[in-house]
TrEMBL record:
Phylogenetic classification of the source organism: Bacteria, Bacillati, Actinomycetota, Actinomycetes, Sporichthyales
Family matches, as PROSITE patterns: ABC_TRANSPORTER_2
GO molecular function list: ATP binding
UniProt domain ABC transporter: residue ranges: 2-230
SUPFAM superfamilies recorded: P-loop containing nucleoside triphosphate hydrolases
Designated name of the protein: ABC transporter ATP-binding protein
UniProt-listed CDD domains: ABC_TM1139_LivF_branched (cd03224)
């Protein structure tokens, strides 16, 4: 279980998150929604140890990891698939999978990645930057399969992809969920996120404005709240 407790965080030019608390229970899919600039990416960066919060705590299975660097947080089972895919564009597919795999487990990692995403097998020697957008996203997502994580933080993994590929990517996320991997999902496709999620949080200007189950809120209410946020 991943818990963020009363997180306040930001950058040199100002505070972005104000007293944010959020829990990702074991095996659950949690959607983190909100308008542009609300602080969703910042929250994922705090959760993965990339950004140290000003105050508040980050706990993994009850253990306080606040202030731990990202590599230590990832060793505890929190994998971050960042906005913009987070692959090494000038390396081959195979080398990217090598870097995603736990130390000494490349062969197993490669088998897992290519049985999940057969297209990566065909393109193993290809330089990652030359893959299609969908294939690059599959390569980014393979990190979540090969490293046997507890929780995957997914930042707009559907961004910039054709609708058919987006559907395919969501199928992979559903599959990952069935394997028992918990997910914290930042997503622009609100309807799809609501269908997949066990719990939903809405972030508005750095504060949680809603926390509950998907059945408690409609897509329309969420979209209207985005517009309200932009108008004010
Ligand atoms: N590295 C940074 N340095 C300074 N300010 C930043 C940095 N990254 C983000 N911000 C600012 O923090 C605020 C929240 O940004 P963040 O990317 O977390 O929002 P978001 O909800 O993910 O937005 P979007 O949906 O547009 O991706 C914005 O005002 C942004 O300009």
């Amino acid at each position: 279980m991943l818990e963020l407790r009363n997180i306040t965080a930001g950058y040199d030019n100002g505070t972005v998150l104000l007293d944010v608390s959020l829990t990702v229970p074991d095996r659950a899919t949690v959607a983190l929604l909100g308008p542009n600039g609300a602080g969703k990416t910042t929250l994922l960066r705090v959760a993965s140890g990339l950004l140290k919060p000003y105050s508040g705590q980050i706990l993994i299975n009850g253990q306080d990891v606040t202030g731990d660097p990202a590599f230590k947080v990832s060793r505890k089972g929190i994998i971050h698939v960042p906005e913009g895919r987070g692959i090494f564009p000038s390396l081959t597919v195979s080398d990217n999978i090598l870097l995603q795999s736990p130390a000494g487990q490349f062969k197993k990692g490669f088998r897992t990645a290519t049985s999940t995403f057969p297209r990566l097998q065909e393109r193993a020697r290809q330089i990652a930057r030359t893959l299609s957008g969908g294939e690059q996203q599959m390569l980014a997502l393979s990190h979540a399969y090969v490293s046997d994580p507890q929780v995957v933080l997914l930042d707009e993994v559907s961004m910039g992809l054709a609708p058919k590929i987006v559907e395919e990517i969501f199928d992979y996320l559903a599959d990952l969920g069935r394997q028992g991997v918990a997910q914290l999902l930042v997503e622009q496709y609100v309807g799809q996120a609501l269908r997949m999620a066990d719990y939903v949080y809405i972030l508005d200007r750095g504060r949680i404005s809603f926390a509950g189950e998907p059945g408690e809120i409609s897509e329309e209410t969420i979209m209207n709240s985005y517009l309200g946020s932009l108008a004010s």
